[in-house]
Write a structure and sequence with these properties.
It is built from ten helices and three strands, in the order ααααααααββαβα. The chain has 328 residues and is mainly α. The chain has two domains: 232 residues, Cation efflux protein transmembrane domain (Alpha-lytic protease prodomain-like, Up-down Bundle); 90 residues, Cation efflux protein, cytoplasmic domain (Alpha-Beta Plaits), CATH 3.30.70.1350. Helix 1 packs across helix 3. It is elongated and about 85 Å long.
Length: 328
């Protein structure tokens, strides 16, 4: 039991925070839906509960993925977070379907226009609170995303430039950021739909909003499924491979790189390198070269495991695109 709590402390705090906030928001929206019968509120309720479930599973997966390697699983549990996300996304897909279905039903048979201003104010008030809370979580996730990407995160950057660096963040943080982006936008869409439906007498507006929100949820389903399916299979990181190759070749004792790949293992990166050195180096000299390179590589973002092996230089260039950089 003690080990479990230790692992939970290592989990994605962005995911846990988002799960708690979204569950609370879902309860608020659920209460507003049962009071008003507003279909756009139903869509937002489903969206919030879907996000909460998904983000909670991501937190659990990111925590358990930090478990130390064992004899049975010598490469650790890094990909467990991908498996958990694939399971959670099935639930979100079901909620997305229900949201779209209810929206289409409301478009086909619109409900009578709400005349009680108090009910309208309740709906808009809950959505406004939702927007504020979702924006807070979005900002925190964007800040964490930029930190993981090694980028400045002051001012409004977590809400602007973070979108340019999503691929450099950990899977859990990226998922929270993406989901809360859709949640924040969804709250605005729902408010606009209520106002249009009530004051411009467009009864299908709320149904259309529900369909739009449901489709945005389906986009999250697609995005999460594709990324985590690739993670389960074992996805490489081309950006980090280029960075690692530069680090290796910057060591003047390295003649060439015969093989290099960087494998994503959940939140972490596993690096495998086979480099070529001159045959005149002693074993002691080779060990010093290895230690120097591995020390630098392990300082890179998300890298927690490096396996560097040496072969004798064969005179052929297996990594030609990097030689010019090395020789400058």
């Amino acid at each position: 039991m003690k080990e479990i709590f230790v692992l939970f402390k290592k989990g994605s705090m962005a995911s846990l925070t988002a799960a708690i906030v979204n569950f609370f928001i879902g309860l608020l929206k659920g209460g507003a839906f049962f009071l008003t019968g507003n279909i756009a509120m139903f869509a937002e309720m489903m969206h919030s509960f879907g996000d909460s479930i998904n983000q909670f599973f991501v937190f659990i997966g990111s925590s358990l993925s930090k478990k130390a390697p064992t004899k049975r699983f010598p490469f650790g549990y890094g990909r467990l977070v991908n498996l958990v996300c694939l399971f959670a996304i099935v639930i979100v897909a079901i909620l997305s379907y229900e949201t779209v279905r209810e929206g289409i039903n409301h478009v086909v048979e619109p409900l009578p226009r709400e005349t009680d201003n108090m009910m309208i104010l309740i709906s808009i008030g809950v959505l406004a609170i939702s927007f504020i809370l979702e924006s807070f979580v979005l900002y925190k996730a964007g800040k964490e995303l930029l930190q993981q990407a090694g980028q400045p995160y002051d001012g409004l950057k977590p809400l602007t430039t973070s979108y340019l660096h999503m691929n450099r963040a950990k899977p859990a943080t990226k998922l929270v950021f993406l989901e809360d982006t859709v949640a924040t936008v969804g709250a605005v869409i729902a408010i606009i739909a209520i106002l249009i439906g009530q004051y411009l007498n467009v009864p299908v507006a709320e149904g259309i909003a529900s369909v739009i929100i449901g489709l945005m949820m389906f986009y999250i389903v697609y995005k999460v499924f594709m990324e985590n399916a690739a993670g389960v299979l074992g996805e490489s990181d081309p950006h980090m491979e280029e960075r690692i190759s530069s680090i290796v070749l910057n060591n003047k004792k390295i003649r060439d790189i015969r093989k290099l790949f960087v494998m994503k293992e959940g939140d972490s990166l596993h690096v495998e390198v086979v480099a070529e050195i001159d045959k005149n180096h002693t074993v002691e000299e080779a060990n010093i070269i290895r230690d120097d390179i591995e020390e630098i590589v392990l300082r890179q973002n998300h890298v927690n495991d490096v396996n560097l092996e040496f072969e004798v230089d064969d005179g052929n260039r297996a990594w030609p695109q990097q030689i010019s950089k090395k020789r400058k």
